[in-house]
Amino acid sequence: MEINPYDVAKAQIEIVAKEMGLDKNTTQYLKRIERALIVSIPITMDDGSVQIFEGYRVHHSTVRGPGKGGIRYSPEVNLDEVKALATWMTWKSSLLNLPLGGAKGGVRVDPRKLSMKELERLTRRYTAEIINIIGPDIDIPAPDVNTNSQIMAWIMDVYSMQKGRSIPGVVTGKPIEIGGSVGREPATGMGLYFVLKALCGKLDLSLKEQSIVIQGFGNVGGTISELLYNEGCKILAVSDISTGIFCKDGLDIEKLLKWVKEGKYLKDYKDSSYNFLTNEELLTTKCDVLVPAAIENQITEKNADKIQCKIVLEGANGPTTPEADKILYSKGIHVVPDILANSGGVCVSYFEYIQDIHSYFWKLDRINQELERIILEAFEETYKISVERKIPLRTAAYIIAVSRVAKAIELRGFFP
Ligand code: GLU
Question: pTM of the prediction?
Answer without folding.
Answer: 0.97
